[in-house]
Amino acid sequence: MWQEIIVGFVVAAAALHAARKYLPSSVRERMVFALARRGLPQDKLARFFKTEASCGSGCGSCGSCGDSSAPPAPPSGDGGPARRVIKLHISKT
To answer: Domain map of the chain by residue range?
Structure first.
């Protein structure tokens, strides 16, 4: 009987490790929200599953509405999008 209980704990720990490491972040966030609704602390769950704690509405911003987290694109001389040029030096040896 003890052997079956220990195997159950090992399997549960392996499942938690796999969920923490290999699941996509959107699935991990939904797991955090579902467990938080059942009374578990959301901030600790978010740290464990390596996600950000948020309100759970699905928008992913929670408190930063209106603020853009993306850096602005550097301006270019012709008014179009900035482009990088990679120069290739081909040598025949």
So the answer is: 2-48
Q: Note down pLDDT in tens along the chain; length 93 residues.
A: 999 999 999 999 999 899 888 888 888 888 888 889 998 888 888 888 888 755 555 555 555 455 555 555 555 555 556 677 888 888 887
What is the spatial distance between Cα 27 and Cα 56, in angstroms, rounded to a whole number? Answer: 13
Angle subtended at Cα 51 by Cα 57 and Cα 55, rounded to the nearest 5 degrees: 20
Task: Note the pTM of the prediction, 2 decimals.
Answer: 0.47
Give yes or no for a contact between 32 and 49, defined as CB atoms under 8 angstroms apart: yes
Report the first-to-last Cα separation within the chain, whole angstroms.
73
